Amino acid sequence: MKKKYLRIVMIFLILIVAGIVFISRMPRLDSDVAAFQHGENSATISSLGTAIEMWGRKHGRVPTDEEKFSVLGLSVRTIADGWQRPFIYKSQRTQGPQAFLLYSLGPNGIDEGGHGDDIVYRRERSEQN
User: Fold this and answer.
1) Which of 2, 14, 22, 112 is the most exposed place for a label (fewest CB within 10 A)?
2) Starting at the edge strand that comes first in sequence, how are the strands of the sheet with 119-120 ordered?
3) d(CA 53, CA 96)
4) Mean pLDDT of residues grouped by 10 in the chain (129 residues)?
5) 19: helix, coil or strand?
């Protein structure tokens, strides 16, 4: 009879310890979700930026601010970051026919012009030359 109670107490203690471990890891789970979301946005913006670059090479210029993603057959409404906000696209033709800025507002949702926590598309150096 004592063994039965001892076994029940041991199972109860194991469940308590498992619960404590699970609860202590909750903040880490939240940060993992944020890291995943950031990575997902980086992948999306990289694909979008590469598509704009390819279109720019074919046409000798990048899309204008008015054209944005429509030249790729995409609507601004269909292109959203992980926080359901549109990506920001700015043609920077004063810096050259292939220059553009593409970024997400990032987790804070504030337009920091591609700075702060904004997630920015960056071309590789070898591709810029």
Assistant:
1) 2
2) 88-91, 100-104, 119-120
3) 13
4) 75 76 57 70 87 91 90 75 88 86 91 91 55
5) helix
DSSP letters of 54-99?
Answer: HHHHHHTSPPPTTTTTGGGT--GGG-B-TTS-BPEEEE-GGG-TT-
pTM above 0.70, yes or no: no
Instruction: Give the distance, in angstroms, between the CA of residue 15 and the centroid of all CA atoms in the same chain.
Output: 37
Single-letter amino acid code for the residue at 38: H
- Which residues touch 100 (CB under 8 Å, ≥6 apart)? 52, 56, 62, 63, 89, 90, 91, 92
Per-residue pLDDT at 102: 93
The CA distance from 98 to 57, in Å, is: 8
Q: What is the pLDDT of residue 27?
A: 52
Q: Of all helices (H) and strands (E), which one includes residue 32?
A: helix 26-59
Residue 23: both structure tokens together: 């609860």
